[in-house]
Amino acid sequence: MTDTLLKSSVDTGILQLTLNRPEKKNALTGEMYQALTDALHEAAQDDAVRVVVLRGAGEDFSAGNDIHDFVVAINDPEKIRIPLGFLQTLSTFPKPIIAAVSGVAIGIGTSLLLHCDLVYADSSARFQLPFTRMGLVPEGGTSLLLPGALGHRKAFELLVLGEPFGADVAEQVGLINACLDSTRLIDFAMEKARSLAAMGPDAVRQSKAMMKQYDENKLQSVLVSEVDAFAARLNSEEARAAFMAFLQKPKANRD
Fold first, then answer.
1. Is 56 contained in some domain?
2. What is the pTM of this model?
3. Membrane-spanning residues where (predicted)?
4. Residue 179 pairs with which residues in a beta bridge?
C-alpha cells in the first residue's frame, strides 16, 4: 500500500519522491508521512543520492493533512505526532531538496516548503495556511520561520487570516524561487537537480549545513511546541466544528 502512495525513483544521483494520491489531491496520511520519513532516512545514508526532488502526482502538490486523520487524532492524539517525525527528518535532511509545486499546496503542503532548499511552482499553484480557520494553530515551523523571513505583519496575514494566495505572491515573499509555465516546471526542477548532483557532494552538504546551523536548535524546539499546541487544539470546540463543516461539504467544494 505504501509503495502506491509514495513513488520513488533514483537516476544519476537524483531521487524523485512523488506523492501519489491524486484522487485526494495528494492529501497526506500517517502512512504517507512514515513513507516519506523512511525514504529521507535512507536517502541521507545513500551515497548514490545527491539531490531529492519532491512533487505531487496529477494536477496537485498536496492538499495537506487528510482531515479524516485529524478526526481520528481527536481520540488518539499520538497520531498527530506522526507528521512531527517527518518534519524533523525533512528539516534536518543534509542534502538538497527541490520541490516542484502545481495545483494546491495547503497546510503542511505549504509549510513543508520552508524546509526545502529550492522551490519552483507553476501558475496553477495555490497556497494556503488555513490553520486558524480550522480552529488550529500554525505547524511545521511556520510560527518561527515565516515571521523571521517576512516580518510579523505579512506572516500574520498568511498564518492567521489564512487566505489562499497564488504563485505570484509566493514568489514576491520568497516562498518559491520562481513561477514557471506548467509545461516547464518539472523539466526546470530536474535541470537544477542535475546541476546540484554534478557538484562536489561534500561541498554542497557543508554549505547547506552552514546556512542552517544558526537557528537549528530553536527550530527543532519550535516544531515540538507547535505539535503540542496543535494536538491540544484538536479537542477544541472550534476545531471539531471546523472538521465537521469541512466533511459535510460537497467534495467539489472542499478546497
1. yes
2. 0.94
3. none
4. 121
